[in-house]
Amino acid sequence: MANQLVRETGLGGALIIGLGSILGTGAYVSVGLSATIAGDMLVWAIVLAALTALFNGLSSAQLAAAHPVSGGTYEYGYQFLNPASGIIAGGLFIVAKSASAATAALAVAWYISASFGVSETTVKAVAIGLLVLFTVFVLSGVRRTNWLNMLLVTVSIIGLVVFIGVALGSDSKAPAVGNELVPTSHLSLFHAAALMFVAFTGYGRIATMGEEITDPRRNIPRAVVLTLAVVSALYIAVGFAILHVGGLNTFEESHFNIANLISDSPWQWVVIVGGILAMGGVVLNLLLGVSRVILAMGRRGDLPRLLGGLDKAQKSAPAATWLTFLIMGIIAALGGIESAWTLSAFTVLIYYGITNIAALKVKKEQRFIPKFVSVLGLISCFGLVGLAAIA
Q1: CA triplet 154, 261, 149: central angle to 5 degrees?
Q2: 3-state SS, residue 16
Q3: What is the pTM of this model?
Q4: Are the CB atoms for 85 and 354 separated by under 8 Å?
Q5: What is the dihedral of CA 346, 44, 14, 343, to 10 degrees?
Q6: What are the DSSP calls for 19-47, one per residue?
Q7: Residue 290 · residue 98 · CB < 8 Å
Q8: Cβ-proximal residues to 314 (8 Å cutoff; 6+ apart), any chain
């Protein structure tokens, strides 16, 4: 069809896109933010978030295989539920992922401010400049961004491995962690898990590219499971490392920069560079993902039809991409790291609640996961929203 995106992303590209969407703000900021809430229960919060992500990831993969088009739960809501569900899901996705991208852009700006002497008064300008840069990358076509993602993912993992190695190899400050980070109630565990869940949701980025991934019924589920397996292992290791090294009482002041926890190490610069590039990768992928949902909404007429147009090469959506930049830029200009991440957490959990409801409607002959997986996903999403709200 003339108005269809070209299928040119295989399993490897989908895995890299998923990792690029996840490994960034989650590892370099969110784990630390969650540590200040969950304290010594941080690792349990990560495990709970990972299980929730697994249920939701399988539901997303089920839906993407059954209905492989760009747009994620916006499209699934229309196909398996009703138009209102689709429109609500589309709006939630745009808000949640725009807030997440704004968080990543702000975090990069703060890393630069702390590490390279940039004035704190220019942090928001740096964040918006980063959004402009990656908007141009997205408009250049998905194949080029896949190559850049591969580089960013590699550097991100190197930075995390260095942090884990240095932190676990240092003298333990576990007693100090216990004193300064005991949560006020067990509800703090669920609050932290809700924030950590956002750090896993890059798998949804794979599902929103259903129209661009080759053999989507086979490659999307495999990419989701592989992505979650790699990320879960890294987050748990980072969680253990943070609790081992301690010193989190100043984390909020440093905008949850894990590199500050190993400030005495000559390898700190590797973590700093890894964090900056990894979170840049998050911005890149979320610009692409949100623009695809806006593209789908424009095609159907739920947003102005101008937003449903592609360029002549059928590889990018200029109007949808620039609107995505505008939304993210406004959130970055008006909000901060913690508030933007919290907004993302609550809206994305509700979004995936709708995802699970839609997955329950997939016909038996198209189903490859049992219904109870989607039921567990639904319960975990709304359960975390409710428990985190009263924490």
Answers
A1: 15
A2: helix
A3: 0.86
A4: yes
A5: 20
A6: HHHHTTHIIIIIHHHHHHHHGGGHHHHHH
A7: yes
A8: 2, 3, 4, 5, 6
Backbone angles phi, psi at 348, to 5 degrees: -75, -30
* Distance between start and end Cα atoms, the chain: 50
Cα–Cα dist 119/317, whole Å: 35
233 CB neighbour count, 10 Å cutoff: 11
Beta bridge partner(s), residue 102: none
Q: 256, 280, 250: which is closest to 337 by C-alpha?
A: 256
CA angle 10, 16, 17 (to 5 degrees): 85
Mean pLDDT confidence for 317-333: 93
Counted residue by residue, the chain has a size of 391
Q: Which residues have a Cβ under 8 Å from the Cβ of 132 and sit 6 or more positions away?
A: 325
Task: Write out pLDDT tens, residues 96-149.
Answer: 999 999 999 999 998 888 777 777 678 899 999 999 988 988 888 755 456 776
Rg of the chain (C-alpha set): 20
DSSP state of 315: S
| DSSP element (H, E) containing 145 | helix 142-169
Q: Does residue 184 surpass a pLDDT of 70?
A: no
DSSP SS3 for 118: coil
Query: What are the residue ranges of helices labelled H in 246-317?
Result: 268-300
- Map out the domains of the chain with their CATH numbers: 11-390 (1.20.1740.10)
CB 22 within 8 A of CB 276: no
pLDDT at 179: 43
- What is the DSSP secondary structure assignment for residue 172, as one 8-state letter? P
The DSSP call for residue 171 is P
Supply φ then ψ for residue 136, to 5 degrees. Answer: -65, -40
For the purposes of burial, counting CB atoms within 10 Å of the CB of 190, is it exposed (0-12), middle (13-18) or buried (19 or more)?
Answer: buried
SS3 call for 247: coil
